[in-house]
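Hallway conversation turned thread

IA: we were arguing at lunch whether anyone had actually written out Phosphatase end to end. Turns out nobody had. So, for the record, here is the sequence (266 residues) and right after it the structure tokens. Reply here if something looks off.
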Amino acid sequence: MPIPGTPTPSRDELIEHLVRTRIAGDVATPRENNLSHYRALANGDRYYWFGLEFGDRWADEQDVLAVMAERVGVDDDPAHRAGQDTIDPELTVAGLERMAARLRKAAEDGQRVLLATGHPGGLLDVHRATAAALRAAGCEIVVIPEDLGTVEGRVVQFADVAVVERGASLWHTHSGDPMRAILFALAEDGRPLPDLVVADHGWAGAAAQHGVDAVGYADCNDPALFVAEAEGTLQVAVPLDDHVHSPRYYDPMTAYLLSEAGLYEG
């Protein structure tokens, strides 16, 4: 469950909270940063592909901008080159509700679920609380194989959430390599792949590219997961600012998500 005592907000209360804490609404990520990342994806920079494969299907950055305007709520005007940009809080909540439906199915079917984050400074506890709720509902939380690593560091599990650890610190990463390392190691061990991955960044993208059901969170300057959702590779991408002032700001959002999934009463 989320932090004990966190009440479940109504939909309107959650929207107000998201805007007030800048998880959505007028977010901190500037417009010029958003556009530079959309351009990088269109130009084939795999750092911004998040473990996905797009070929030449998104070579026009205006097509990427159109997806982001539709699915995230950024300004759709290509002439808006600098300054403030936005995430539509209605789209954030709609994404949470779609994710909740998939979590509900996982719980009802007792599925194997793997949770992971490339943004531990912001989203670790969101995933940790989701893992705890799914486990309590009868899901198997996948335990990752030991002795895994990538060029960025060791792939470990902390509070039931897979992360990259480097120099005794949890590491921020966009890479899909850690998820690929887990999936390949599970297969080598003769263990089944997850039925569902709940993640963000390249962890979610690489799982979806591998054919595993995946849902995830992404910021307005991280277009890959939204493009993958538009193509049908990723099941759900929830738009939000993935590192706001306090990780506790995500608690009402997590309570809403798990309540919608039938996994939390608060």
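OS: looked through it. Residues 89-109 form the longest helix (21 residues).
IA: good, adding that to the notes. The radius of gyration is 17 Å.
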